[in-house]
Amino acid sequence: MAKDRIKEFILESLQKYDELPVISFSGGKDSCVLRHLVRSIPEGRKCKCVTSAELFHPQTFSFIQKTKIEGDVIFGFRKPFNKIISENGYPMISKMLAQKIWHVRNTNNPSTYVRAAFGLDGKTFGKIGHKYIHFLDKGFVRYEISHRCCDYIKGEVKHCKSPCFIGTTISESRLRKNSWIKNGCNFFNNEFQKAMSRPLSLWDEQDIWRYIIDNNVEVSPIYGLEMSDDYENGYKLNGYKRSGCSVCMFGLSLENEISKRTKGKVKNRFELLFDTSRSVYERYMHERKYAFWKPLTDMGIHLNVDDNKYERKYKNRLKELKVWYFHAKANINHILDELELRYSKSPKKSLTKQTLFSKSDRDHIVQAYSQKDVYGKI
């Protein structure tokens, strides 16, 4: 099925655009399967890989360099990473929530995202959770949170105009599932003005690893892949479960919950980075121009690593978080007052709606988020 879609896309690209598609390659397991699939059929043997430099784990970057063939391209960043952080914001929590937090904090007309962000539209999906509401307080959280990091890090690959194979699966997120339902496997992406194919969309984690094992596909050593008939599925992962940018904080909260439940047996990505590349961990965690300790402590992420500097900063920030939530009612009212002020000055202010929140909306938000012990008692 996947090979059929791949062949169709190659032939259509040659017919419509007179060029072979490129393979978007990140060095992760899905990309490795995609590259192997495309190049395993006669029509796809000459398809080249395009790779964004990203913030690869050193082992993954070495793997990409090692398996690169003539014609494969590695693009640099569209903007230095420290500039992405300072000018756009940290990638954290999830892409959807980061987008909503950014808009609520910064847009001149906050009404667009406010109802969904506070759950006033009646939906729980996409609502800002109780333990993240302090990110809307610009006086308490003085850096930005953003969904746009990928636009700059992966921008050259995203904006490459050639038809492109992408190794995404619908099991990874609801957004990707909805996109596949809307567009299918092979389609023309109006946002990037290019044809795209996602032949792995219906594959799950087991399908990916089974293909890797059955076809002896080489993957990055960061996974710590160990194959044996003694294991339930024929393999065991002793390292990372996912690759990608080594310091991306999208999905980190879930990893951290798993780490806590397993008492550190399953480590989150920062704990693994500490174990496997201490110099990279130190650079992004503690150097002033990156300072990842700030968003991590604000997310309440406790790291089970031997890092006294982080432990001290975590404990200090946890005290501040407890105080903020102890005074949650006053702080949330302050956030709402700020939003009302910006709305009153907005040129896009509705002529029929003089205030952003009705009294009942405001009461609902304050009551819903005024929990004093989200991060524990003072």
Q: What attributes does this structure have?
A:
378 residues
Structural overview:
With 378 residues, the chain is α/β, with parallel strands linked by helices. Helices cover 46% and strands 8% of the residues. The protein is built from 17 helices and 10 strands. Strands 3-2-1-5-7-6 form a 6-stranded mixed beta sheet. A two-stranded parallel ribbon has the order 4-10. α3 links the parallel β2 and β3 (73-75). α16 (328-345) runs antiparallel to α17 (359-369). The longest helix has 19 residues, at 308-326. The termini are far apart.
The helix/strand order is HEHEHEHEHHHHEHEEHEEEHHHHHHH
The total of helices stands at: 17
Unreliable residue runs:
none
3D shape: globular
CA-to-CA gap between the ends? 57 Å
What characterizes the major β-sheet? 6 strands, mixed
Taking all Cα atoms into account, the compactness measure Rg is 23 Å
What is the percent of helical residues?
40-55%
What is the count of β-strands?
10
* SSE class: alpha/beta
How much of the sequence is in beta strands? Answer: 5-15%
Biggest sheet strand order reads 3-2-1-5-7-6
